[in-house]
Design a protein that fits this description.
Shape: elongated
Number of helices: 15
Number of strands: 24
Largest sheet: 9 strands, mixed
CATH architecture of the largest domain: Alpha-Beta Complex
């Protein structure tokens, strides 16, 4: 067995049970393995301990401060700093051994990193060598105590090692989008806290500049379609950061309207009404929805496996809860709610929708029989970040009210109601509050676009690359023009511009996941 090197390897980890083993195995030659666990809910800590590491727990507050604290816990004067998604190559191990055998010339060293998305190495676009300070004496070095992208601070000269660290940055493109979402939130918070003034013009310039520099200046085009995706994300980072910054500066938290839900129709001589609500982790939103329908004869909540107390809230509101944690098929879930309902008429809702008083009055007058219509479209007033979107293509009718036995849903995502009989149209309806923040918007669209991509590939398993290029270049631009100009999203001001830009990007998200599932197949790392 090779001799241990008098070096402390400090690893930051949170919910990394699937990757911590390989990380620690790659540095088993170091004398101390120290894992700083950020309140993991999986068995990261237990696995690290089984690998011989000392585990300390600390909640991440500010990244720079967290790293400085972690490094202060090491017992050796030299530290190799890693994240759980990084691996030290055998070549780097040998280079570090030689460095310590000969005596280090510097007190701080940067190390190049090979960054991966899934199992694909991104070699251009500024992603390689992407050297970072990794080997150092903490006595002469510290991190800037800021929330995102902390800078390395030291007045000592730095050396550079030649061998690589392998960095499995992202398990797949969905993971990429999730981390970009979190980082842009921190970036926008930093702008607000620092009092930085960011204009739309400046944000747009930076968006285009980052794309151009990544795709052309740093030769990201050499990585083909993956390089194009990385370049788009580089630009979109600036746009999304600005959008979150603008929202915090100009808008408060959305407030669903107060609903007069007093009084009950139960027991009256008229049609029975059932409300079926689709929900998952909706504890912060579902109360107004439940309040707006509590007068109905029956309230059923189809829950997709909430972990935030949604089910308890619904049961306290006397709703019947049906739990299905296995399905990601929204049509199937809605049909399950329909099958459980006993009312003459069924109103299907999302947890972020609120039945308005004028809609209630109309529902109270429904006859038990489906005459002359078997189903009704009703108004759905969509609110984007608390703002009613009258333009931009988001003001539309919703077909989710039908007579029992007259309709069923089809479709895994954006499910459609198939009706046997005539369909009427109502001037009344619901208020819809789908997104409390842009972070929530991105999180939900990341999940939806994955489901949509899977559904698309069921009918068209291998779309040609020519079509994928078209759908990720021309189509998002065309969609933005349609929403912003043709559908008059510009009339909503800055929030309309942000709205149209985000939904054009959602189309891009869906198609890059189609590409990943067909042309970039690999097991997540």
């Amino acid at each position: 067995m090779s001799e241990k090197i008098p070096l402390s390897v400090v690893v930051l980890a949170k919910n990394e049970a699937g990757r911590i083993t390989e990380c620690l195995r790659s540095v088993a030659w170091a004398d101390e393995l120290l894992v700083i666990d950020d309140d993991s809910s999986d068995n990261t800590a237990a696995i690290a301990q089984s690998m011989g590491a000392t585990v300390l727990r600390r909640t991440m507050d500010i990244e720079g401060r967290h790293r400085n604290w972690a490094h202060s816990q090491a017992k050796h004067p030299w530290i190799l700093s890693l994240d759980a998604d990084e691996r030290v190559t055998p070549e780097l191990e040998q280079e570090i051994r030689r460095l310590f055998a000969d005596g280090p010339q510097y007190e701080i060293y940067t190390i190049p990193r090979r960054n991966y998305i899934g199992t694909r190495w991104v070699q251009h676009g500024g992603w390689y060598p992407s050297s970072q300070v990794k080997l150092f004496k903490p006595a002469v070095f510290r991190w800037e105590e800021t929330t995102v992208h902390p800078r390395a601070i030291s007045d000592r000269p730095w050396g550079t090692l030649r061998s690589d660290i392998i960095h499995y940055s992202y398990r797949d493109l969905g993971d990429f989008i999730g981390k970009l979402n979190r980082q842009t939130t921190l970036e926008a918070q930093k702008w607000v806290q620092d009092g930085r003034r960011m204009t739309a013009g400046k944000a747009l310039w930076r968006t285009g500049d980052r794309f151009y520099r990544t795709w052309v200046g740093k030769k990201g085009r050499r990585d083909g379609f993956l390089g194009y995706v990385v370049a788009v994300f580089a630009g979109f980072y600036q746009f999304l950061s600005f959008a979150k910054y603008w929202h915090w500066k100009h808008r408060g938290k959305e407030r669903p309207p107060d609903i007069n839900g007093t009084g009950s129709l139960k027991g009256r001589n008229r049609s029975r009404l059932s409300a079926v609500i689709l929900a998952k982790n909706a504890a912060e939103k579902i109360r107004p929805c439940l309040e707006s329908v509590r007068w109905m004869d029956e309230v059923i909540v189809v829950d997709g496996g909430s972990t935030d107390g949604t089910q308890e809230i619904c049961r306290r509101a006397e709703a019947r809860v049906i739990v299905d944690e296995t399905s990601d098929d929204f049509g199937k879930l809605r049909n399950a709610g329909t099958a459980a309902a006993s009312g003459d008429w069924i109103l299907q809702l999302d947890a972020d929708e609120v039945v308005m008083p004028d809609f209630r009055k109309w529902l109270e007058s429904l006859a038990p029989e489906p005459k002359p219509y078997a189903a009704y479209k009703f108004r759905r007033r969509n609110n984007f970040l608390g703002h009613w979107m009258r333009h931009g293509g988001w003001d539309h009718l919703s077909l989710h009210l039908f007579h029992r036995g007259s309709a069923r849903y089809e479709g895994r995502v954006h499910e459609k109601l198939l009706v046997e009989g005539a369909v009427g149209t109502l001037p009344v309806g619901v208020e819809h509050y789908p997104f409390g923040s842009l972070e929530e918007f991105m999180e939900r669209q990341n999940r939806y676009t994955l489901l949509e991509a899977r559904q698309m590939l069921e009918s068209n398993p291998t779309p040609p690359m020519k079509e994928i290029w078209r759908q990720t270049t021309l189509k998002p631009a065309k969609l933005f023009w349609k929403l912003y100009i043709k559908k008059q999203g510009f009339r909503e001001g800055m929030i309309g511009f942000i709205f149209c830009g985000l939904f054009a990007f959602v189309h891009f998200m869906k198609w890059i996941k189609v590409w990943e599932m067909t042309y970039a197949k690999s097991e997540p790392v």
